[in-house]
Automatic annotation (TrEMBL):
Keyword field: Membrane, Transmembrane, Transmembrane helix
Keyword Kinase: no
InterPro entries in the record: EamA_dom (IPR000620), EmrE-like (IPR037185)
Ranges of residues in domain EamA: 6-130, 138-271
TM spans (from-to): 7-25, 31-50, 62-79, 85-104, 116-132, 138-156, 168-186, 198-217, 229-248, 254-272
Keyword Transmembrane helix: yes
A Pfam family hit: EamA
UniProt family annotation: Belongs to the EamA transporter family.
Protein name per Swiss-Prot or TrEMBL: EamA family transporter
Protein backbone atom coordinates (compact mmCIF):
# COMPACT_ATOMS: atom_id res chain seq x y z
CA UNK A 1 0.00 0.00 0.00
CA UNK A 2 1.27 3.47 -0.90
CA UNK A 3 2.26 5.89 1.85
CA UNK A 4 -0.50 8.31 0.78
CA UNK A 5 -3.19 5.65 1.12
CA UNK A 6 -1.83 4.54 4.49
CA UNK A 7 -1.74 8.15 5.64
CA UNK A 8 -5.39 8.71 4.67
CA UNK A 9 -6.41 5.52 6.50
CA UNK A 10 -4.54 6.66 9.63
CA UNK A 11 -6.27 10.07 9.55
CA UNK A 12 -9.68 8.45 9.01
CA UNK A 13 -9.12 6.17 12.03
CA UNK A 14 -8.07 9.19 14.10
CA UNK A 15 -11.15 11.17 13.08
CA UNK A 16 -13.51 8.28 13.84
CA UNK A 17 -11.98 8.02 17.32
CA UNK A 18 -12.07 11.79 17.83
CA UNK A 19 -15.73 11.78 16.78
CA UNK A 20 -16.75 9.49 19.65
CA UNK A 21 -16.11 12.34 22.10
CA UNK A 22 -19.56 13.89 21.78
CA UNK A 23 -21.33 10.54 22.23
CA UNK A 24 -19.50 9.44 25.38
CA UNK A 25 -19.64 12.92 26.93
CA UNK A 26 -23.43 12.83 26.49
CA UNK A 27 -23.71 9.30 27.90
CA UNK A 28 -21.48 9.72 30.96
CA UNK A 29 -23.49 10.94 33.96
CA UNK A 30 -20.87 13.29 35.39
CA UNK A 31 -20.04 16.98 35.23
CA UNK A 32 -17.73 18.41 32.59
CA UNK A 33 -14.73 18.85 34.90
CA UNK A 34 -14.87 15.26 36.13
CA UNK A 35 -14.94 13.94 32.56
CA UNK A 36 -12.21 16.33 31.41
CA UNK A 37 -9.93 15.44 34.32
CA UNK A 38 -10.48 11.69 33.99
CA UNK A 39 -9.93 11.70 30.24
CA UNK A 40 -6.79 13.83 30.48
CA UNK A 41 -5.34 11.78 33.36
CA UNK A 42 -5.64 8.54 31.43
CA UNK A 43 -4.21 10.09 28.25
CA UNK A 44 -1.36 11.65 30.24
CA UNK A 45 -0.50 8.31 31.84
CA UNK A 46 -0.47 6.62 28.41
CA UNK A 47 2.06 9.13 27.04
CA UNK A 48 4.03 9.44 30.30
CA UNK A 49 6.70 6.86 29.29
CA UNK A 50 7.33 8.77 26.04
CA UNK A 51 7.87 12.24 27.54
CA UNK A 52 11.41 13.47 26.89
CA UNK A 53 11.84 15.27 30.20
CA UNK A 54 15.46 16.31 29.59
CA UNK A 55 14.56 18.05 26.32
CA UNK A 56 11.63 20.05 27.67
CA UNK A 57 12.13 23.81 27.46
CA UNK A 58 9.48 26.27 28.59
CA UNK A 59 8.92 29.00 26.00
CA UNK A 60 6.26 31.67 25.43
CA UNK A 61 4.82 29.66 22.53
CA UNK A 62 4.56 26.49 24.59
CA UNK A 63 2.91 28.31 27.51
CA UNK A 64 0.34 29.72 25.06
CA UNK A 65 -0.17 26.23 23.62
CA UNK A 66 -0.79 24.69 27.06
CA UNK A 67 -3.22 27.43 28.11
CA UNK A 68 -5.18 27.16 24.85
CA UNK A 69 -5.20 23.35 25.02
CA UNK A 70 -6.50 23.33 28.61
CA UNK A 71 -9.27 25.78 27.72
CA UNK A 72 -10.09 23.80 24.57
CA UNK A 73 -10.49 20.50 26.43
CA UNK A 74 -12.52 21.94 29.30
CA UNK A 75 -14.82 23.96 27.07
CA UNK A 76 -15.41 21.18 24.54
CA UNK A 77 -16.73 18.88 27.26
CA UNK A 78 -18.64 21.74 28.91
CA UNK A 79 -20.33 22.95 25.72
CA UNK A 80 -21.16 19.39 24.61
CA UNK A 81 -23.06 19.07 27.90
CA UNK A 82 -24.75 22.48 27.51
CA UNK A 83 -25.73 22.55 23.84
CA UNK A 84 -26.04 19.98 21.04
CA UNK A 85 -22.95 17.96 20.18
CA UNK A 86 -23.29 19.22 16.61
CA UNK A 87 -23.20 22.87 17.68
CA UNK A 88 -20.26 22.27 20.02
CA UNK A 89 -18.04 20.64 17.39
CA UNK A 90 -18.92 22.83 14.40
CA UNK A 91 -18.45 26.09 16.32
CA UNK A 92 -15.08 24.76 17.48
CA UNK A 93 -14.19 24.19 13.83
CA UNK A 94 -14.55 27.93 13.11
CA UNK A 95 -10.84 28.18 14.01
CA UNK A 96 -9.86 29.19 10.40
CA UNK A 97 -11.86 32.41 10.81
CA UNK A 98 -10.19 33.41 14.09
CA UNK A 99 -6.74 32.39 12.88
CA UNK A 100 -7.22 34.56 9.79
CA UNK A 101 -8.31 37.56 11.91
CA UNK A 102 -5.27 37.05 14.12
CA UNK A 103 -2.93 37.19 11.12
CA UNK A 104 -4.70 40.29 9.75
CA UNK A 105 -4.85 42.26 13.01
CA UNK A 106 -1.66 41.16 14.77
CA UNK A 107 0.63 40.04 11.96
CA UNK A 108 -0.44 42.65 9.40
CA UNK A 109 -1.50 40.12 6.75
CA UNK A 110 -2.99 41.73 3.64
CA UNK A 111 -6.69 41.07 3.05
CA UNK A 112 -7.32 39.29 -0.25
CA UNK A 113 -10.56 38.16 -1.87
CA UNK A 114 -9.40 34.55 -1.85
CA UNK A 115 -8.81 34.63 1.91
CA UNK A 116 -11.79 36.80 2.82
CA UNK A 117 -14.66 35.04 0.98
CA UNK A 118 -14.38 31.67 2.81
CA UNK A 119 -14.28 33.46 6.17
CA UNK A 120 -17.44 35.39 5.28
CA UNK A 121 -19.24 32.07 4.76
CA UNK A 122 -17.98 30.82 8.14
CA UNK A 123 -19.20 34.03 9.78
CA UNK A 124 -22.64 33.72 8.13
CA UNK A 125 -22.92 30.15 9.41
CA UNK A 126 -22.07 31.32 12.94
CA UNK A 127 -24.75 34.03 12.74
CA UNK A 128 -27.31 31.45 11.60
CA UNK A 129 -26.57 29.09 14.52
CA UNK A 130 -26.50 31.82 17.16
CA UNK A 131 -29.58 33.52 15.70
CA UNK A 132 -31.83 30.54 16.42
CA UNK A 133 -30.43 29.95 19.93
CA UNK A 134 -32.13 31.03 23.12
CA UNK A 135 -31.55 30.85 26.88
CA UNK A 136 -28.95 28.35 28.08
CA UNK A 137 -28.48 27.02 24.56
CA UNK A 138 -27.32 30.46 23.42
CA UNK A 139 -24.80 30.64 26.28
CA UNK A 140 -23.52 27.15 25.41
CA UNK A 141 -23.14 28.14 21.75
CA UNK A 142 -21.27 31.32 22.68
CA UNK A 143 -18.87 29.29 24.83
CA UNK A 144 -18.42 26.86 21.93
CA UNK A 145 -17.56 29.83 19.76
CA UNK A 146 -14.79 30.85 22.18
CA UNK A 147 -13.56 27.28 21.87
CA UNK A 148 -13.03 27.95 18.17
CA UNK A 149 -10.70 30.79 19.18
CA UNK A 150 -8.82 28.47 21.55
CA UNK A 151 -8.56 25.85 18.78
CA UNK A 152 -7.04 28.50 16.51
CA UNK A 153 -4.38 29.28 19.12
CA UNK A 154 -3.66 25.56 19.53
CA UNK A 155 -3.15 25.22 15.76
CA UNK A 156 -0.98 28.35 15.63
CA UNK A 157 1.32 27.27 18.46
CA UNK A 158 1.46 23.61 17.37
CA UNK A 159 3.25 24.81 14.21
CA UNK A 160 6.17 26.06 16.31
CA UNK A 161 9.33 24.00 16.58
CA UNK A 162 9.80 22.47 20.02
CA UNK A 163 12.92 20.57 21.13
CA UNK A 164 10.81 17.66 22.39
CA UNK A 165 8.66 15.11 20.55
CA UNK A 166 4.95 15.26 19.69
CA UNK A 167 4.31 12.48 22.21
CA UNK A 168 5.96 14.67 24.85
CA UNK A 169 3.70 17.58 23.93
CA UNK A 170 0.54 15.47 24.16
CA UNK A 171 1.55 13.80 27.43
CA UNK A 172 2.71 17.00 29.10
CA UNK A 173 -0.35 18.98 27.96
CA UNK A 174 -2.71 16.46 29.55
CA UNK A 175 -0.69 16.30 32.76
CA UNK A 176 -0.74 20.11 33.04
CA UNK A 177 -4.50 20.07 32.37
CA UNK A 178 -5.01 17.64 35.26
CA UNK A 179 -2.87 19.75 37.60
CA UNK A 180 -4.74 22.92 36.61
CA UNK A 181 -8.10 21.34 37.46
CA UNK A 182 -6.75 19.94 40.74
CA UNK A 183 -5.44 23.36 41.78
CA UNK A 184 -8.22 25.63 40.51
CA UNK A 185 -11.37 23.49 40.52
CA UNK A 186 -10.94 20.50 42.87
CA UNK A 187 -14.45 20.99 44.30
CA UNK A 188 -15.93 20.17 40.88
CA UNK A 189 -14.45 16.68 40.74
CA UNK A 190 -16.99 14.01 41.67
CA UNK A 191 -15.88 10.48 40.81
CA UNK A 192 -17.74 8.79 43.67
CA UNK A 193 -21.07 8.92 41.84
CA UNK A 194 -19.79 7.36 38.63
CA UNK A 195 -21.31 4.07 37.56
CA UNK A 196 -19.33 1.22 36.03
CA UNK A 197 -20.50 2.41 32.60
CA UNK A 198 -19.31 5.91 33.43
CA UNK A 199 -15.84 4.70 34.35
CA UNK A 200 -15.65 2.60 31.19
CA UNK A 201 -16.67 5.66 29.16
CA UNK A 202 -13.95 7.84 30.70
CA UNK A 203 -11.36 5.10 30.16
CA UNK A 204 -12.42 4.85 26.51
CA UNK A 205 -12.13 8.63 26.08
CA UNK A 206 -8.65 8.70 27.58
CA UNK A 207 -7.25 5.64 25.83
CA UNK A 208 -8.86 5.87 22.41
CA UNK A 209 -10.52 9.27 21.88
CA UNK A 210 -7.41 11.16 23.05
CA UNK A 211 -4.50 8.68 23.28
CA UNK A 212 -4.64 6.26 20.34
CA UNK A 213 -6.32 8.81 18.08
CA UNK A 214 -3.41 11.25 18.38
CA UNK A 215 -0.90 8.49 17.60
CA UNK A 216 -2.76 7.74 14.35
CA UNK A 217 -3.21 11.44 13.61
CA UNK A 218 0.45 12.39 13.87
CA UNK A 219 1.53 9.28 11.97
CA UNK A 220 -0.96 10.02 9.19
CA UNK A 221 -0.02 13.70 8.84
CA UNK A 222 3.58 12.70 8.18
CA UNK A 223 2.52 10.46 5.28
CA UNK A 224 0.18 12.85 3.45
CA UNK A 225 0.09 16.59 2.81
CA UNK A 226 -1.35 19.00 5.37
CA UNK A 227 -4.06 19.93 2.84
CA UNK A 228 -5.28 16.35 2.45
CA UNK A 229 -5.15 15.83 6.22
CA UNK A 230 -7.30 18.94 6.73
CA UNK A 231 -9.91 17.74 4.24
CA UNK A 232 -10.08 14.26 5.82
CA UNK A 233 -10.34 15.94 9.24
CA UNK A 234 -13.78 17.25 8.24
CA UNK A 235 -15.01 13.76 9.12
CA UNK A 236 -14.96 14.69 12.81
CA UNK A 237 -17.63 17.43 12.75
CA UNK A 238 -19.70 15.19 10.45
CA UNK A 239 -19.45 11.92 12.42
CA UNK A 240 -19.65 13.46 15.91
CA UNK A 241 -23.32 14.58 15.67
CA UNK A 242 -24.23 11.45 13.67
CA UNK A 243 -23.02 9.17 16.50
CA UNK A 244 -24.92 11.28 19.06
CA UNK A 245 -28.09 11.19 16.93
CA UNK A 246 -27.95 7.39 16.47
CA UNK A 247 -27.26 6.47 20.10
CA UNK A 248 -28.75 9.42 22.02
CA UNK A 249 -31.38 10.74 19.62
CA UNK A 250 -30.20 14.35 19.75
CA UNK A 251 -31.06 16.21 16.53
CA UNK A 252 -29.89 19.75 15.64
CA UNK A 253 -32.52 22.23 14.46
CA UNK A 254 -33.07 22.94 10.76
CA UNK A 255 -31.51 26.39 11.13
CA UNK A 256 -28.44 24.87 12.81
CA UNK A 257 -28.11 22.35 9.98
CA UNK A 258 -28.19 25.20 7.47
CA UNK A 259 -25.52 26.99 9.51
CA UNK A 260 -23.39 23.81 9.55
CA UNK A 261 -23.60 23.58 5.77
CA UNK A 262 -22.50 27.20 5.33
CA UNK A 263 -19.58 26.77 7.76
CA UNK A 264 -18.51 23.50 6.10
CA UNK A 265 -18.50 25.23 2.73
CA UNK A 266 -16.39 28.09 4.11
CA UNK A 267 -13.91 25.69 5.72
CA UNK A 268 -13.68 23.70 2.48
CA UNK A 269 -12.91 26.89 0.52
CA UNK A 270 -10.00 27.66 2.87
CA UNK A 271 -8.46 24.30 1.93
CA UNK A 272 -8.43 24.82 -1.83
CA UNK A 273 -4.78 25.37 -2.83
CA UNK A 274 -3.81 28.67 -4.46
CA UNK A 275 -3.22 27.93 -8.17
CA UNK A 276 -0.91 30.89 -8.55
CA UNK A 277 1.33 29.56 -5.78
CA UNK A 278 1.32 26.11 -7.35
CA UNK A 279 2.31 27.56 -10.75
CA UNK A 280 5.22 29.45 -9.19
CA UNK A 281 6.42 26.26 -7.49
CA UNK A 282 6.23 24.36 -10.79
CA UNK A 283 8.65 26.83 -12.38
Amino acid sequence: MKNTNRGIIYIVIAMVLFSTGGLFIKLIDANAFTITFGRALIAGLIFLPFIQWKKIRISKSYVMLVIAYCYLCIMFVTTTKMTTAANAIILQCTAPLWLYLFYVIVKGKKITKRDLVPRIFILLGIVAILGESDGGNLFGNLLALTNGIAYAFVQYNMEKDYPFSDASVIGLNNIVLCLAILVLLPQNLAFSGLTVQGWLGIIFLGVFQIGVSYLFFFKGVRLISALKASIVSLLEPILNPIFVFIFVGEMPSVVSLIGFGIIFFGIFLTMIPDKSVQQIREY
